[in-house]
Amino acid sequence: MARRTDPEKRERILESARRVFLEDGYEGARVAKIAAGAGVAVGTLYLYFDSKDAIAGALTERFFEKISDRVVPMFADLSTPQRIEAVVDAALAVAEEERVLFEIEKLPERSAQSFREQMVGALAESLEEQGLPPNLLPGDAPVLANLLASLMERAIYECLVWRTGDIGRYRRILKRIFVRLLLDRAPV
């Protein structure tokens, strides 16, 4: 008979893991410390997660869900500078809220790659459906979506992970680049 799990307890475990990973690094983090921080026994933690890797994977998935829920629906209408700027703001806001995840070593790369492909695919599909930019050559939407995603990722790492850039400046420039690339009438 399967045991029922408590969503609040699972959330406490994830929040504790987040703190412990940040304090001790992924390799230095101990499951016992994560369990203690969540106020559960180690055995109880293992009812929710098979391993430390599984906990890191759940943290990563939670981030991906959050950014997908906020950003992907916004792809449906990229017809004005304000709507494009709102996408940039939303993506950077989630990254700022979850900046600790970028500081945790060894987040599951396979999940990150899969998520990136999904986001790029959703953006490319929206660009094609909306005919953006107007002079984009057939089949180039995935390339443009990939390049835009790369610019966003680089800004996140420069400003939130490595702390070598000013997020306000990056935000402003990203908005200009995205608007120019998506709405400009010049050949792409």
Based on the model shown, name its key terms.
188 residues, mainly alpha, Arc Repressor Mutant, subunit A, Tetracycline Repressor, domain 2, 2 domains, 74% helix, DNA-binding, DNA-binding transcription factor activity, HTH_TetR, Homeodomain-like_sf
Structural commentary:
There is one protein chain. With 188 residues, this protein is mainly α. The protein has 9 helices and no strands. The model has no long low-confidence stretch (mean pLDDT 90). The longest helix is centred in the N-terminal third of the chain and has 22 residues, at 7-28. The protein is 74% helix and 0% strand. It has helices spanning 7-28, 31-38, 42-48, 52-71, 81-97, 99-103, 109-130, 141-161, 167-183. It has 2 domains: 1-49, Orthogonal Bundle (Arc Repressor Mutant, subunit A), CATH 1.10.10; 52-183, Tetracycline Repressor, domain 2 (Orthogonal Bundle), CATH 1.10.357.
Quick structural gist:
GO terms for molecular function: DNA-binding transcription factor activity; transcription cis-regulatory region binding. By secondary structure, the protein is mostly helical.
Find the structural class using helix and strand composition. mainly alpha
**CATH homologous superfamily designation of the largest domain:** Tetracycline Repressor, domain 2
Measured on Cα atoms, how large is the radius of gyration?
19 Å
What is the CATH topology assignment of the largest domain?
A: Tetracycline Repressor, domain 2
> How many helical stretches?
9
- Uncertain stretches: none
- Give, in order, the helices and strands: HHHHHHHHH
Number of domains: 2
Largest sheet: none
Give the percentage of residues in beta strands: under 5%
How far the N terminus sits from the C terminus, by CA atoms, comes to 59 Å
Bulk shape: elongated
The top level CATH class name of the largest domain? Mainly Alpha
> How many beta-strand segments?
0
Tell me what the CATH architecture of the largest domain is: Orthogonal Bundle
Percent helix, as a range, is: over 70%
Query: What is the residue-mean pLDDT, rounded to a whole number?
Result: 90
